[in-house]
Amino acid sequence: MIRINNLTKRFGKTVALDNLSLHIQEGEFFGYLGPNGAGKTTTVKILTTLARPTSGTAEIGGHDIQRSALAAKKLIGVVPQAINLDMELTAYDNLLIHGLLYRMKRAVIREEAKRWAAFVGLSDVMDRPVNTFSGGMKRRLSIARALLHRPRVLFMDEPTVGLDASGRRDLWGLLKRINREGTTIFLTTHYIEEAETLCDRVGILDRGRLIALDTPQALIASAGKIVVDVFDNESLTSHFFPDRASAGAFAATVQGSATIRNANLEDVFVKLTGRRVEP
Amino acid sequence: MRGFTGVFTRELLIIKKRLLKMLISFSVTPLLYLIAFGWGLGQKMTVEGVPYITFLIPGLIAMGSMTRSFAISSEINIARFYWRIFEEFQAAPVSDLAIAVGEVLGGILRGFLATAIICVFAVFFHVRIHVTGAFLLAVLANAFTFSSLALITSMVVRSHADQSMLNNFVITPMAFLCGTVFSLKALPGWAHALIRWLPLSPATRAIRAAALGHPMPWDALATVLCFGVVFFILGTFTIRGAKA
User: Fold this and answer.
1) Nearest-CA neighbor of B48 among B34, B63, B58?
2) Which domain holds residue A267?
3) What pTM did the predictor assign?
4) Confidence of residue B244 (pLDDT cuts 50, 70, 90)
5) Which residue among A49, A84, A102 sits closest to B84, beta carbon to beta carbon?
6) What pLDDT band is residue B56 in, cutting at 50, 70 and 90?
């Protein structure tokens, strides 16, 4: 569904994206994990045609995003990191404008708006101006808008940033339902738990380079399933082990404080880069 | 091209939402001009063979339709840098031409709203404006030209500060100098020669002639339209250039 070949983006001397190659299957829930400034948003902007790559190519549904941009755009929906709704207008007006941009007939827009408003739980507030909405409602409206024209791929750039824990979990459920209906999802996030819970496969990006790509389980297993965190004065170091027995044996030798826990995707990042995923 | 309806519908919905505020705000400047220069200074003056207030009102129409059409520049700027709504247009399967058409139509509509308000004021000041096809064409040409110029500037500038600087150095001088509130014939030859090439000068000539029922100076109208077409083509290309 998405084919990226040797994609590079430079801003002056800064390399924001370094020779990225990636294939994403139809119906896949793909997670793009990395700290802020890793190049996640740059990738999404290029794939959604909002930015031009310095070199390399990308295809969506077989359409080159530069040579056949309009055909590629018809297949995608975008939920940007910064909410870009018209705050003065009603929720329905926002969907109407989107539908017209995608050349939908007004009667079809009305029907689809009703369906997606119900899907994201906003049916009762469609006539209200968006500036009266909470952050979570605005995010859900952004998702309904992105789905209105029934895209085959949904790009979501850090969709849960700014939401509280409960709002985040509600949104996770919604995203899983969208994916189950057959939509391919490309999700960028710096929340480890989000990537682990939702994604079929995860790509880890660091300083513009894709440093790991696999299922969350395989990535965690590759780092070592069990972690011993050792607190030594003011520093924290993590040690990786294939099983609890060897981890326990190691922890017994540590002078000071040590905790044993299951590994997660952040540990994969730490092992590969020596740094933590700082938001 | 059909995608322009999305962009233009957004403009219509915003105008509908703000209509009362817009009408009041569009009224203030021309009303102040009419009171200060029409009543206060120009009651016994004649300019180019007509009472000053009769000369002034078509100039205010030229000025008002220009400033209000050009004001979409700030609107696009806010949509682009602050609300990021412009990204929604750019991510949609809509050509740059369709975006340009939608935005420019929005600017033209604002220009006509400003014109309508001044035409209503003209009734109260006992000045007859000939609202004919020629007059509407002249206003359309002016609004089209400055909406298109607004599109270029909104895509080229990098911040709101740049935008207001452009207003101060380009639009405000044009509003005063291009024969809107005084006759260009009063200027020294070199200044007249220079100013007559600014796009608002021929627009003012065309609008004034049509509004007062005089023969249309077709050369002036053609000049404005040429400016408009060039600005529109450049504006369409600047949308593409605005991508990162």
Assistant:
1) B58
2) 219-273
3) 0.87
4) low
5) A84
6) very high
